[in-house]
DNA sequence: TTTGTTTGTGTGTTCGGACACGCAAATATA
DNA sequence: TATATTTGCGTGTCCGAACACACAAACAAA
């Protein structure tokens, strides 16, 4: 008969501590140590303290492999996200979620998708209701409807279901974690880029296109960052104007834009705070106007085309794929590995030109 | 007595395949399946085929947790890297390696560091010799000395020790993987940035500072990218000049630079292809020249200071930390998880301004 | 005092895979 | 033919942690 002896092995000169080692040192059984670790009760107070102090002293770190393997739970994560068939932007976060899903599948995570129409509140509420009924172990969502989301937060909170937000930040009922971009900083960057390309005093337009109240806070922060750049650098001879445009009503959109062009002959740059820079760029292309610098957001295909032909100067990439990925990753760290996860994770803001576009298109963060 | 029955559990509707399941279906024992999987021989040919076809058919994916847990090997990885006390640039890759080390410690990886003086070949050779004697399970290195590295590659190759290169690319004796930046593309980007800020025809300087032959290929590629940008965009009325400067001999450096300034009154921008943009920026600051746009590389503290006060317009970040991290990560994927790893990984090129600097300073990729 | 419940602790099985060993049958060598 | 060796396959233990269960002692209720 084979008996491999108890190695209690060493790693980098240090003994690797197992529950068994703690048990021996504390003169109790592994079961007791386990009960202490998981606070499952049924342990005498003095023993508990003794074990805990030994755990601390030996700097015990549980073996995650063994933990995952032995407690073979499956965690159901619900992802409440906008339908990418309706707004292409959302395909990136989804692919990030999918990437994480496949990476963490082995740990027993399962993701159920609830997709809603980003332009219809009812659709959001309906899906959120469905999801809540299923009582998932955790939730990922982009709460683009502020008012309607709050009651759900309350419910999840009371049911102790952790949720992670991405893309859109809501502070109330603190989520486990928020993954997103720093809108204010991105406004600063946009300003820098536009200013850098137009060193002489002129007029710049901040255009909020096609996003109503849903993202209002974000857009405001972006605009504030943009304006503050000029303020901070004492560039008071630059004029910043703003416009809210909606391409749904095409003719009024065209009119409004024409008016802006007419009334601002000194206009040299446009900062589009949403992913709709292509709407403006297309228009300018049709009008054969090539003197305006456009800075926009997000690597959606329509933007990419116009970045490549030079109509758009820069796109700021908010790592939408990374947002999806990290949302899941944080949840897995929390649920499975019981790690502390940061409450806030701002993803980097990448400045994308046609020259470095390739990296961001299929970067697998 | 408790008997938990064999669950052969389901996940997302699909049965999760274990060795046991394969064994049952193939009417053999798990030991046999194991021998097939690991090609340990001692299996009849027909059985082997049967098992293999079932593995394929059921799309068996080994449980990595279980694998790591049961085969409790420790892998010794040797990291051969330049001393960051001599050149600050190298602290970033090292911190990336350390990050990966702590992340993968649980999988049984141990990293031994061999640091050499990046300015002394002998130092490199000595450390490489030491390392080779230790017969590590894998090697990570930045082969900044081309000629001297080749014999080691040969040796490691013959000893079947996989090695990963980062930062500096050498094609011969193909490494397991190369992690680095696309120098040519970064030249293009630099050109775009400098041109964007100087739309009117003028002169630009490509300055190679303080790096001799070690990085020659890289620097050439950068310059080529820079020049090609103007070519591709038919900007033939821009003049591109080049200079190789060495700050070690200070007076000749100053003289050379003065000459350049004197002879090129139309000079509007400087592209520093190394991490030494601060040398130029400092000089210009002393001379109170603020009309030149400088684009350089790497977030070393001296550069950061000058980025923040506006002397340097942009820094291109080559993700040095990520290079270290991904080197280890690829090795772990290969050694432990037996995954396919890409032969080439170009990390993104980030355009850093003082506005988005924060993200890159402690971004934990 | 007897019976029931709570508290404290130890034991044994399991997760999926790796590998050492046992052992019979087939084949080779004497 | 007797003895060695190789080949093919099964069994059992272990990795470290989780958790179900067994069971004695302490305490409470009858």
Automatic annotation (TrEMBL), chains A, B:
Q: Report the InterPro entries cross-referenced here.
A: HTH_LacI (IPR000843), Lambda_DNA-bd_dom_sf (IPR010982), Peripla_BP_I (IPR028082), SBP_2_dom (IPR025997)
Looking up CDD domains in the UniProt record yields:
HTH_LacI (cd01392)
Write one Gene Ontology MF term.
DNA-binding transcription factor activity
What domain of life does the native source organism fall in? Bacteria
Which keywords describe this protein according to UniProt?
Answer: DNA-binding, Transcription, Transcription regulation
Q: Which intervals hold domain HTH lacI-type?
A: 17-71
**Know the name of this protein?**
Transcriptional regulator, LacI family
What is the species listed in this Swiss-Prot or TrEMBL entry? Answer: Pedobacter xixiisoli
Q: Lineage, please?
A: Bacteria, Pseudomonadati, Bacteroidota, Sphingobacteriia, Sphingobacteriales
């Amino acid at each position: 008969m084979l008996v491999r002896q108890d190695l209690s092995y060493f790693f980098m000169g240090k003994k690797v501590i197992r529950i068994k080692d703690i048990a021996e040192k504390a003169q109790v059984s592994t079961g007791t140590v386990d009960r202490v670790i998981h606070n499952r009760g049924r342990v005498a107070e003095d023993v508990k303290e003794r074990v805990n102090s030994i755990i601390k002293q030996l700097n015990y770190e549980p073996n995650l492999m063994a933990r995952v393997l032995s407690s073979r739970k499956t965690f159901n994560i619900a992802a409440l996200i906008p339908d990418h068939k309706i707004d292409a932007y959302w395909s990136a976060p989804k692919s990030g979620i999918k990437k994480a899903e496949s990476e963490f599948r082995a740990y027993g995570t399962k993701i159920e998708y609830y997709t809603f129409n980003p332009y219809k509140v009812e659709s959001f509420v309906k899906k959120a209701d469905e999801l809540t009924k299923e009582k998932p172990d955790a939730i990922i969502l982009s709460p683009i409807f502020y008012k309607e989301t709050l009651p759900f937060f309350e419910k999840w909170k009371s049911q102790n279901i952790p949720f992670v937000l991405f893309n859109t930040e809501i502070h109330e009922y603190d989520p486990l974690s928020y993954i997103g971009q720093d809108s204010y900083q991105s406004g600063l960057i946009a300003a820098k880029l536009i200013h850098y390309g137009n060193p002489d005093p002129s007029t710049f337009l901040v255009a909020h296109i096609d996003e109503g109240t849903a993202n209002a806070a974000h857009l405001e922060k972006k605009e504030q960052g943009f304006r503050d750049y000029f303020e901070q650098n004492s560039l008071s001879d630059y004029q910043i104007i703003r416009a809210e445009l909606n391409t749904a009503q095409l003719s009024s959109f065209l009119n409004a834009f024409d008016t802006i062009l007419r009334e601002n002959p000194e206009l040299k740059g446009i900062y589009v705070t949403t992913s709709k820079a292509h709407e403006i760029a297309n228009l300018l292309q049709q009008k054969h106007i090539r003197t305006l610098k456009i800075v926009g957001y997000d690597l959606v295909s329509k933007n990419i085309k116009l970045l490549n032909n030079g109509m758009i100067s820069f796109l700021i990439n908010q790592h939408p794929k990374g947002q999806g990925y990290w949302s899941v990753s944080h949840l897995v760290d929390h649920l499975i590995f019981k790690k502390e996860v940061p409450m806030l994770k701002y993803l980097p803001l990448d400045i994308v030109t046609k020259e470095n576009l390739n990296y961001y298109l299929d970067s697998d963060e």
